[in-house]
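Listing S7. Sequence submitted for prediction.
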Amino acid sequence: MKIAHFNASRQRWGTRRNPFWDYPIAGFTLPQLATVANENYKRLRELLVGCRKAAGMTQVELSSRLKRPQSFVSKYERGERRLDVVEFGEVAKALDIDPSKFLAAFYRSGE
């Protein structure tokens, strides 16, 4: 597909190709990189899911404690979004776990 644009240096209208319209999917996909950081984050997510299940909580129950939608819990558990340090603290508090002990166990398990 071509789009019209004004070429100011030549004072005329012309057309140029818009790669988004020719390849709309390619403009929005990013390759998943298999890095150590991603593997560590996967382990962190698995530990958080395990803590939630060990506490006998569903995603809905945890999300109500966090005063967030259930999709928030689902997205960080699936790796669709990452938790920042403040959010991690809120999740740990809602799960009744000590964040420092949790992180110490996380780093010990990775050795």
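Caption to Listing S7: primary sequence and predicted structure tokens for the chain studied. The first helix runs from residue 19 to 22. The helical segments are 19-22, 36-54, 59-66, 70-78, 85-94, 99-109.
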